[in-house]
Design goal:
The protein is an alpha/beta fold and about 300 residues long. The chain has twelve helices and 15 strands. The strands form four sheets. Strands 1, 4, 5, 6, 7 and 15 form a six-stranded mixed sheet that branches. Strands 10-9-11-8-12 form a five-stranded mixed sheet, with helices on both faces. About 35% of the residues lie in helices and about 20% in strands. The radius of gyration is 19 Å and the shape is elongated.
């Protein structure tokens, strides 16, 4: 998840939020899972693909995840969870596929891994952007996301957007591969002056220690990470400017370019979950709010 950060806008992460200490355990579990299951069958040349039929026959779908809380990860009890895996469980069950199997990898390896058939679907809260849309096809977003800052209590430098950071010459940090790097640079911040840290926890630590004035991340991850801090707070969510216009990111499942039938069937069930309110009930335990539910489409975010 931007963003999360799940959720970089380049061909690698999105996102949003980042790797945690759980990633090592996730990778180990993924290695065990990989040895116990053959690779996905060769992609079909049939129009629209036949992966859905094969998944129904197998009874299991393999999900590419990146070990990122809250988007897709293995919890301390060894269970697959996160907003994307829990949503995948609900939708694929409706599609006649009862089981999901995690295949952990680095975020930057999700699209290459999908296209080399190491797994069937990317379930990692991946931001939809035009660069990625050239490599995979996306379902419509299951959530939308604004940015937010971690700042010292009281926000002493009065920082509310990237323009403020530039104008007030604030010391700025964000995460490895985060979309926020691009947003800050677009606002006029010198990229070489950005402090790059592993994730939002490291960003919080940098703000609390006074090494930086501000850390930028997704609204979800910043508000969650400051909950136990006595020295820092999250700013009000805001839309960064892209080409001079406010931009809202959206995270979605990704499929191979040939598998339009599976993507379309997934979208049908996703729309039903949105309409019934079940989607929000699935995502709410992971910190999502009603404001982050969305009617954005993949076509809009792909620029088409």
């Amino acid at each position: 998840m931007a963003p999360p950060n799940r959720h970089v806008r380049q061909n690698a992460r999105i996102p949003r939020p980042t790797r945690r200490s759980l990633l090592a355990g996730v990778a180990a579990l993924g290695a065990v899972g990989a040895t116990g299951c053959s690779r996905v069958a060769t992609a079909s040349s049939a129009p629209g693909g036949d992966l859905l039929e094969r998944l129904r026959a197998q009874g299991v779908v393999r999900l590419g995840i990146a070990g990122e809380i809250p988007f897709g990860y293995i919890d301390r009890d060894g269970h697959l969870t996160g907003e994307a895996p829990e949503l995948a469980k609900a939708i694929f069950k409706r599609l006649g596929v009862d089981k999901v199997q995690p295949v952990p990898t680095e975020f930057g390896s999700l699209i290459p891994g999908l296209n080399s058939q190491q797994f069937d679907v990317v379930a990692a809260g991946m931001y939809v952007n035009p660069e990625r849309c050239e490599q995979v096809i996306f379902a419509d977003p299951d959530y939308q996301m604004l940015d937010s800052f971690i700042v010292r209590k009281g926000n002493p430098k009065d920082l509310h957007n990237y323009q403020d950071v530039v104008e007030k010459k604030a010391r700025f940090a964000t995460g490895t591969g985060y979309a926020e790097i691009e947003y800050a640079v677009e606002a006029g911040y010198k990229e070489s002056d950005i402090l790059i840290v592993p994730d939002q926890v490291a960003g919080l630590n940098a703000v609390e220690a006074g090494r930086v004035d501000v850390f930028a991340g997704t609204a979800l991850t910043t508000r969650e990470v400051v909950k136990k801090s006595s020295k820092a707070e999250a700013t009000k969510p805001f839309a960064p400017l892209v080409d001079g216009k406010p931009h809202v990111d959206g995270g979605a499942f990704a499929f191979r370019l040939t598998e339009t039938r599976l993507r379309d069937a997934f979208n049908v069930e996703l729309r039903r979950l949105k309409k019934s309110g079940e989607l929000f009930r699935i995502l709410k335990p992971f910190g999502f709010t009603e404001a982050e539910m969305t009617d954005l489409t993949a076509k809009e975010l792909c620029g088409g």
